[in-house]
Amino acid sequence: MAKSTTYLTNSKCKDCINYPNCIMSLLNNNEQNIASKYKTTNKYKKGQAIFNEGFTPYSFYCILKGNVKLSRIGGEKIQILRFAKSGDIIGYRSLIADENYSTTAIAISDTTVCSLPKNIFLDELIYNSELSLKMLKQFAVELKQADELIINLTQKAGVKRIAETLIKIKDFYGQNDKTNALNISFSRNEIASIACVSTESCIRMLAELKKQGVINLVNREIQINDFPKLKIIANSK
Amino acid sequence: MAKSTTYLTNSKCKDCINYPNCIMSLLNNNEQNIASKYKTTNKYKKGQAIFNEGFTPYSFYCILKGNVKLSRIGGEKIQILRFAKSGDIIGYRSLIADENYSTTAIAISDTTVCSLPKNIFLDELIYNSELSLKMLKQFAVELKQADELIINLTQKAGVKRIAETLIKIKDFYGQNDKTNALNISFSRNEIASIACVSTESCIRMLAELKKQGVINLVNREIQINDFPKLKIIANSK
DNA sequence: TAAAAAATATGATATAAATCATGTTGTTAA
DNA sequence: TTAACAACATGATTTATATCATATTTTTTA
């Protein structure tokens, strides 16, 4: 896979399209000056890795524009664990834990990412309590979500996990108002890796949901027809 | 289940048996004074809940002495997610996320817990950057562990998960030097809830490990004879 | 625009582990 | 010290879903 393209810019967070939603909007003027001085901006094509499991982290990443999946390998199979989109941050867990990356981040659409050197970010955490508190909250929510994923993946039947997965994608990335198609399209194999089923089972389960009239499958694209029913399926015993 | 017994003490963290290992050792003199003024100490019998999933949190908890399991219900089954012991803190996730408890904490041996009112703890987080940074690190490690649990529970075969569970208990709570028995004993049903298998399967798999000479089952007590082999089993494909 | 490759689809079979059933052992309480 | 109960144990059966096999469709590339 080709290397990402690097762009050097001096733009500040307060002028970013994600301001004030991005967590880095909490930097004060001085911190923003430092950040803009040291940050680089990189473009990743769909499918390119931003960082890889097992590698040493040197940077903190902000998604300027685009979408990312975070996954982890366990022997043979890949498990997709969570997602990120414009304005989200990635790669901070390893920096804060002072460990190598425990997940792999891959662009699921063409994605532009701002990178900040490790120590600049860690310094900001020390001196900006608003930032560190926001980070604490981010972790607290993520930890709950990880716990929920454990319960969902281990205690729900396959079709329910597929339903849950479609809900997750719709809630996070949205859907087309007219066609009801999911804004970000995943292959059957990817959906399987989110729901933790085999690709074949995933295909069968999607077919089952289609048969029940909950979704529509048009040219590999998934349209959610009956979102309430999808929720009922995902949450039923 | 009977209510916990409450004791009021004015002792400070710096005089605690867990000093300086407990994260609260990072409080400065003034903060320790405030903490000692507002904190209460409670004793929980084995099996008693310290807090329950779904309830609103009002306190931050430090385990003065004892052991705790953190679990979560998913429909029918209970999944044990992690453990805590003397010097560990619990209940902070919900406080920081400003959400109800997402897990239940139950004493797995007689346990004494210090409680600090929610706002005292949250204030300390704001003003003590050393504390908030340590909390960030705690979250970062816990999040990785949650991710690892996802992979282990969804991708490893039952026996391997049982082996993994025994390793986890041994590493976290230790084992008796002479008998090789685990320091904290769990019922078969609890081990099943950690490894995410049925109780019957858990029993069968323990029997299998015994047959292989890796462990010994004496009066419901589990002794680890061959730890290296247990690790090999847990990590083999 | 044909050929190759990748993704989707579907049927048949295998399998790990849950569930159900019943029995045994160990612990608690009358 | 026996009865009652809970925990542990083991066999038989069922079930969900993975795996294997083979098509079909769509996309990519030569």
Account of the 3D structure:
The structure is a homodimer of 237-residue chains. Chain A contains eight helices and eleven strands. Chain A has 237 residues and is α+β, with helices and mostly antiparallel strands. Chain A folds into two domains: 5-152, Jelly Rolls (Sandwich); 156-235, Winged helix-like DNA-binding domain superfamily/Winged helix DNA-binding domain (Arc Repressor Mutant, subunit A), CATH 1.10.10. In chain A, the strands form three sheets. The first copy, chain A, has a five-stranded antiparallel β-sheet. A four-stranded antiparallel β-sheet of chain A has the order 3-8-5-6. The longest helix of chain A has 27 residues, at 129-155. The interface between A and B is large, with 44 and 45 residues. Chain A binds a DNA duplex (30 and 30 nucleotides) through residues 157-158, 187-189, 197-201, 203-204, 207, 217, 219-220.
Structural class of chain A: alpha+beta
**What portion of the residues of chain A fall into strands of 2 or more residues?**
15-25%
Distance between the termini of chain A: 43 Å
Tally of DSSP β-strands of chain A? 11
For CATH, the homologous superfamily of the largest domain in chain A is named as: Jelly Rolls
What is the count of helical runs of chain A? 8
How would you name the oligomeric state of the polypeptide chains in this document?
Answer: homodimer
The SSE string of chain A, one letter per element, is EHEEEEEEHEEHHHHHEEH
Large-scale geometry of chain A: elongated
Major sheet characteristics of chain A? 5 strands, antiparallel
Task: Assign a percent range to the helix content of chain A.
Answer: 40-55%
CATH class placement of the largest domain in chain A: Mainly Beta
Low-confidence stretches of chain A: none
Main interface by residue count:
A-B, 44 and 45 residues
Could you tell me the CATH topology label of the largest domain in chain A.
Jelly Rolls
Q: For the CA atoms, what is the radius of gyration of chain A?
A: 19 Å
